[in-house]
Amino acid sequence: MERDGSISIDADLVDVSTGAELWGEQYNQKLSDAMTLQQEVSGDIAGQLRLRLSPTQQQRLNRNDTQNGEAYRLYLEGRYFWNRRTPEGLRRAADLFEQAVSKDAAYARAYSGLADAYTLMTNYFALRPREALPKAREAALKAVQLDDSLGEAHASLGLVIVEADLDIGGSDREFRRALELNPNYPSAYHWHSINLAQRGRIDEALAEARRAVELDPLSLPLNQNLADVLGYAHRYDDAIRQYRHTLDLDPAHADEHDLMAWTFYESGNTEAAQKEWQTWADTTTDRAGGKRMSEALKLWKSAGPEAFFRFRAAGQIKQSETEYVPPSLIAAYYASAGDRDAAFEWLEKAIDEPDNYVLYLRTDPSYDKLRSDPRYKQFLKQLKLDR
Predict the structure, then answer these.
(1) Is the pLDDT of residue 37 over 90?
(2) Residue 213: what pLDDT?
(3) How far apart are CA 296 and CA 318, in angstroms?
(4) What is the tens place of the pLDDT at every residue in 248-281?
(5) Residue 16 has pLDDT above 50, yes or no
(6) What dihedral angle (degrees, nearest 10) is formed by the CA atoms of 329, 138, 82, 206?
(7) Cα 49 to Cα 20: distance, rounded to the nearest angstrom
(8) Is residue 1 pLDDT above 80, yes or no?
């Protein structure tokens, strides 16, 4: 709890089998001393649990990334907005991380946050990859340069490598290094699970996705990613349940309806797919997008699903004239419509962008209709997904 420039923490250890409190303590410090307080609390808890920490673990526990309390506050606020995963939130996060490094130019963790903000701007359509990713790379490299032992920095670099270079192998090495340095970092498991799924290593991807959720069970992105990977495994019922669980965490997160609609369609339940897309149209804050979706669904009823997907592709192309739309999304619509030529044309554009979602070509069911085409294997080879 924060009040009048001070921070108060109540820490309790509870036996979950009986509900009995084993230990409790209250801590009060000035907000500017929050970093010292964090070390004190974690050290006391480790002592109460009688943990025997290795020298490396002890060093990690006592890590003090910055002596500047204002930089630390700005970093924490930046992570809050980054976790919201909206274009506005990511822009705000980048600004806060920039302020943090202006307060402390040697603050590696803040540079890692800045890299993550710029990288995810491409995923949430806030900036084109060619605008955002050079800034992300610069920040990630700076973070690693400042502190090569910081797991978050290596995870940030791995994300940049896969997004900017479409380099599966290089990013895998960085994610593994990140987890070696910090085995409790949820985002590293999240991004490594994506890397594994893109290569078709679904069982490993599921294990990493589940571990991420275990570490941060209330995170919408981590829960959604677990549902995504279940879908890539063609475990559609499990994927739907996981999407619904994610929606339960935040009923306002309308994009879960879009993802469930795709999953229902890929499972063969076209009626449920149409209902979910209509729910998305009714609940999304993108009013123009919702109207176009409703129009597309009317076309489905009169002309079939192929007409629906063609309409959606045309709408995305029109939208791309004024804002960034991943070419791979347009390719997925054309693939679902059965228009292979158009799908492969937009996959080429995805590689040129670069658009990281093209790396889902091997596992995403929306590309299923392309798999018998000779060009499909050529694309896998080009993207090094044939290994």
Answers:
(1) no
(2) 98
(3) 14
(4) 999 998 999 999 999 999 999 999 999 999 999 9
(5) no
(6) 60
(7) 15
(8) no
Q: 3-class SS at 7? A: strand
Return the HEC string of 222-279: HHHHHHHHHHHCCCHHHHHHHHHHHHHHCCCCCHHHHHHHHHHHHHCCHHHHHHHHHH
- What does the block give as tokens for 312? 């959606």
Question: Which pair of tokens denotes residue 194?
Answer: 């994506």
Mean of pLDDT values over 151-175: 97
Assess whether pLDDT exceeds 60 at residue 3. no
The residue extents of the domains of the chain are: 2-55
Which residues, including other chains, have CB under 8 Å from residue 170's CB and lie 6 or more apart?
158, 161, 162
Angstrom distances, CA of residue 85 to CA of 65, 220, 270: 25, 9, 29
- Burial pattern 267-283, b for ≥16 Cβ within 10 A else e, equals bebeebbbbbbbbbbee
Tell me, what amino acid is at 188?
Answer: A
Of 225, 305, 317, nearest to 266 by C-alpha is 305
Residue 51 has pLDDT above 80, yes or no: no
Helix axes 287-303, 270-283, angle to 10 degrees: 150
Judge whether residue 48 has pLDDT over 80.
no
Q: What is the rounded distance in angstroms from the CA atom of residue 202 to the CA atom of residue 371?
A: 18
CA angle (91, 94, 95) in 5-degree steps? 90
**pTM to 2 decimals?**
0.85
Q: Are 319 and 325 in contact (CB under 8 A)?
A: yes
